[in-house]
Amino acid sequence: MNRREAVAAALAQVAPRLPEFETEAVIDRALASPGLRNARPDNAAWLALVAYARHVFTEYDDLLADGYDRDSARHFIRDDLNAALAAWGSRRRVSEEETAPDEEEADEAP
Fold first, then answer.
1. Could you say which DSSP state residue 34 is in?
2. Cβ distance 59 to 80 under 8 Å?
3. Buried-most residue among 4, 6, 26, 97 (CB within 10 A)?
4. Tens digit of each residue's pLDDT (9 = 90 or more) over 41-58
5. In the chain, where are the structural domains located?
6. d(CA 30, CA 4)
């Protein structure tokens, strides 16, 4: 199994209802992100999924453009982010305390 297949399999486990076109975008993000290149496939899939949802399905980028710092913007979009994850069948959620070193690289805008 190559890296793309491994990330795809992990993503199917964490977000089984993610539409195909979204799946491809998340996999592409996981494979292109320098910070996720050496991450385990399950970690790469999760971090890429969260970053993708944050930028595409929330007002995160608008809040940053309005002058909010990263942590404040993340606080204000957390409910929308978790709603997107739930809609995709993910049982995992992003919490206030959750931070991951690899997420910085995964969080580059699409």
1. G
2. yes
3. 26
4. 999 999 999 999 999 999
5. 3-101
6. 9
